[in-house]
## 1
Amino acid sequence: MHLSELRAKIPEQLYTILEKDINELRPAQEKAVRAGLLEGKNLLVCTPTSSGKTLIAELAALSTIISGKGKAIYIVPLKALASEKYNDFRKRYGHIAKVALSIGDMDSADNYLSEYDLIITVSEKLDSLIRHYAPWISMAKVIIVDEIHLLNDPVRGPTLEVLITMMRQLLKNTQVIGLSATIGNPQELAGWLDAELVYDEWRPVRLLKGVYLDGEIEFVE
């Protein structure tokens, strides 16, 4: 699918930014569009690293923001990753959307975030914001959960599971997009999220498996 096929489906401001670097969508991105990404459908995207998952999230988030439908929240597992995403998104989209980073004080509602469009945060912080009744959360129309396979993590998993459950109860008409490169039970997780499963094995660089011994690698066919 060529990017030009999305011109009528996404805001012109977003299209102008994307066309500078993208001519054709990657397989997972095309599958996500066909599965209802731009129509507000919940999606679980399970594809290899560097296969284009982040752009799927960006398409949903920025389309929603620019069209005036509401805010987008991007949840990542680590503060360092949140800072990285914040810098990337602000550099690319800062002139068309207000991007904020919220990873600090766990005892604050961060009311200033009501002035921002795209909020990058970690699950523990968002959980705290909900418990402090942050009023702007009701304005969120897209929730992106990066590394959603961490639901299975004994430390972060329970918080993330409760967080997703609360968000779905509080925000009935909000689109949820889960992203992961490794999910052992994608169909089951997609069912729990009431989401369409976007599964693809394409990767930009071929992955080879082999055994290293005495300075030589024997690759498995």
## 2
Amino acid sequence: MANKARIAKNVFFILGALTLGIMIYKIGLENIWHEIKQTGWWFVPILSMWIVIYLLNTITFYIILRDGSPESEKVSFIRLFKLTISGFAINYITPFGLMGGEPYKIIELKDELGIQKATSSVLLTTMMHFVSHFLFWVITIPMLFFLVPVISDSIEIGLIISGGTAFLLLLWAYRIYAKGGVNRALIISSKLPFVGKRIRIYKEKHQEKIDQMDVLIADLYQNRKKDFIASLSIELLSRFLICFEIMLMMKAVKVPVTLVQSVLIESIQSLISNLFFFMPMQMGAREGGFVIIYGILSLPVAYGVFVSLCKRIRELFWTLIGVLLIKAERR
């Protein structure tokens, strides 16, 4: 079992290193160096603030994991911090987003926690991350209608649909928290062509374990309300903290923006980027998001491209750190 885990870790490391190299090639070393020179020392607080954001993400993971069971005491906060950074790094560079980072964390934790608890804890933490996005959009999208006087009809319709969709996703998330969702997801997946039969066989063979995972998922909302509210609040706080990154980047080019503007910019560009979750690092989608929101706010679109590239460089930096941490052995 240990050999399989080591092989999986090496596979994640090699794929991460290769994909990271491809991303650097696509962005271009000249572009990266130009943006670093233009941003200058402002990259120090930009990169450093993500230590705080990752710490907040880890606190969420820690709260969810610590349910009073003996096995939950086996995993330290520092280890979760390492897994959080590496998990996000893999997700950045993996097509379809969660095809890499979440399985990696489950593989790393299953020896200490068991496969059911490792899976349910990772899924709950990921759900908190998703729901904080949904809440962020539900809160911030209406702000555009009150703060921006002129919005085209097509953009207004798109924002209304996006806000409504985010609200419906919140209702879906509530159902998952209340009853668990692994069993239901497998039932739906078993009807898919080609893979449906295998999923159905797996479900029948492991029904008891699947039910146990759903019980563990529902336990957080049903029996640990304080932990649920605390973890969700911390994740939502991290969403708003990310908005300060845009303020720092715009200060680097001496074009300051307000906190409200940076919140709106982060909200719309993250919404559009997540629509293209199946692309590694949402290549192209994020740039489009910045162009749209900078146009809505009557800010020069060129600065939107600048901020987008700065974010790419920050992601490359932390992705490199995360990929290197995959090879860091446990002490």
## 3
Amino acid sequence: MPKIHPQSPTRERTPHGTAAACPSPRFPATTRLQRTLSAWFGKNARDLPWRRTRDPYAILVSEIMLQQTQVATVIPFYKRWLARFPDFASLAATEESDVLSLWQGLGYYSRARNLHRTAMTVVTAHGGEMPRDPALIRALPGIGRYTAGAVASFAFDLPEPLVDANVARVLARLLNLHEPIDSTAGQRALWAAAIALVPENGARIFNGAIMELGALICTPRTPRCNACPIRKSCTAFANGTAESLPHKKPRRSRTELAEHCAWTVHHGRILLEQQTGKRWRGLWKLPALPSAPPAVPLLTLEYPFTHHRVMLSVFAQPAPSPLHENLAWHAISALTDLPLTAPHRRAIEQIRSR
């Protein structure tokens, strides 16, 4: 059970910017913790490009890109994106195919589609300006509780809580939380803690500080507790349980899948198939085959797909006649600018290199 000291229900902020009755954990010397952590951040924060701006559009782009992607990978994509689409208006006016093309390499393409839809909504419903109300921010396409809090606090310095992977780890150790952090009870405890900790003034600095602490000090393995500026407030440090926390629910086992695709090349052009499914809609890939032909594949490679492990096999095949509507020829020399799925781009590059 989480070691949280309950108090009488009070009126607390919610990520929607409204008040709601909910119990929050008590932290010893909360104000001192806030000041200590914010001061540490002022001396130790990494110089990241999205920390040099208060532009809500640029901050939103960085937050969407950083979902499930490491900082070092995001930085060049972030810079290229803002050079091409510097504001909501320029992004809203762009075709989805161009958006996907610039996004390729980051994966999880639904993020790019949602960002594109958000830009169009901001232009049509909010005059091209990000609304300041956290509830209106969260109502935008693809923006959840965390992202709304991040934009509200980093762009507008509003006292909105946020919980990402780094913050969840810090809070779980501060609380000595033994509930899985990806469970309903664990999430409830983490958000209650985040609400209790975010200051009325200086939320932008504090939220950045607690995220940075998780990234640099309160790391997943071998946390640097002796270098932590708030270890005196950490229950897990006091109990010697920091390295064993946080807990997560058991992982689902992966399902093995087989994917068979065609390699059809003619006069410097390759036959590709455009996807219509939810995950890869609008992207191109090698054409699917209903089954494996009685031949040795040109290439086999594995790639992960949610809770699956896919074995992709590529076979030399003639072009079907007639071509169905999702098939099209593309110049091999122009594939760099085509939004291809990452595993199929890798397969094409490997076959061509041979």
